[in-house]
Amino acid sequence: MVDIERLVRDFNPEHGFTEPDSVTERRLHDLSGVFADTAAYEAACLAGNPLVYSVQIFTPGGGEGDLHVGYGTIEPGTVGSEFFMTKGHVHERAEMAEVYIGLRGKGYMLLQDVRDGGNRAVELGEGRIVYVPGHTAHRTVNSGSGRLAYFGIYSAAAGHDYRRIAEDDFDAVVLRGAAGPRLVPRREVRDMKS
Ligand code: F6R
Ligand code: ZN
Q1: Ligand 1 site, residue 87, Cβ cutoff 6 A
Q2: Residue 70 and residue 112: Cα distance in Å, rounded?
Q3: What residues have CB less than 8 Å from 63, skipping those under 6 apart?
Q4: pLDDT < 50: residue spans in the chain
Q5: Residue in 38, 71, 35 with CA at minimum distance from that of residue 53
Q6: CA angle, 118 as apex, 54 and 92 as ends, to 5°?
Q7: pTM for this structure?
Q8: Residue 27, class by beta-carbon neighbours within 10 Å (0-12 exposed, 13-18 middle, 19+ buried)?
Q9: pLDDT at position 193, please?
């Protein structure tokens, strides 16, 4: 008999689930290696340890065919010129896709094919769905002045591999520019400092 209580959960687009099954918070000090401008990152860490993003998870089941729903929020802010972003990952079961649903705010998803390195940035925000196909590393960036909130819906069996991204990072970063967000190759941010 299906336990109906387990299948439903109340949520609010601004605050997420009334009763998440788990919550992960990532603060600036947890994000070593994520920002391309390491000098700006170290300076920001000395100045404080603000919340950068958090994920609340609704896990109605853990079987091979089940789905998990993550409610993510990224705070507005920058490290140097780089907008706040998630660590990013590829699924351990790399073939497993994910659907992102923008709920609030404005931002981008960086998508990078781990087989051939091909990469793209697509906008994510209120009123937009992004389908992340299998074999695609994904990172979410808040380029707006308010919080970015979204759902990510993925297989309970997908798993999260952060190591692969740490070793072979996304090729692009999103910078704050005078005329709006600018997508630049990661190596250019490194070159700016030398
Ligand atoms: C789940 C998923 C999201 C992210 C969230 C935080 O597969 O893609 O729920 O977990 O955006 O990002 P990471 O996991 O990269 O810290
Ligand atoms: Zn994912």
Answers
A1: yes
A2: 20
A3: 156
A4: none
A5: 71
A6: 50
A7: 0.96
A8: middle
A9: 61
Return d(Cα 85, Cα 38) in angstroms, integer.
15
Beta carbons within 8 Å of 134's beta carbon, 6+ residues apart: 91, 94, 95, 96, 97
98 lines ligand 1 (CB under 6 A): yes
pLDDT at 145: 97
Residue recorded with tokens 């299906």: 2
State in Å: Cα 88 to ligand 1 middle.
7
Structure tokens at 182: 């600018």
**The token pair that represents 140 in the structure block:** 């979410």
Q: Please give the C-alpha separations between residue 18 and each of 4, 68, 173, 189, in angstroms, as whole numbers.
A: 17, 16, 33, 40
139: its two tokens: 């990172």
Which pLDDT score, from 0 to 100, does residue 190 have?
A: 76
For residue 168, what are the CA distances in angstroms to 47, 134, 135, 172?
28, 17, 14, 12
Tokens representing residue 107 in the block: 């931002």
The encoded tokens of residue 4 equal 């109906």
Q: Please state the φ and ψ torsions of residue 75, each to the nearest 5 degrees.
A: -70, 155
Q: Quick check: 52 and 75 in contact, CB under 8 A?
A: yes
Residues with CB under 5 A from ligand 2 (ion): 98
The encoded tokens of residue 95 equal: 């073939």
- For ligand 2, the distance from its centroid to the CA atom of residue 98, given in whole angstroms, is 6
- The Cα 1–Cα 62 span in angstroms is 17
- Whole-number Å distance between alpha carbons of 166 and 10: 35
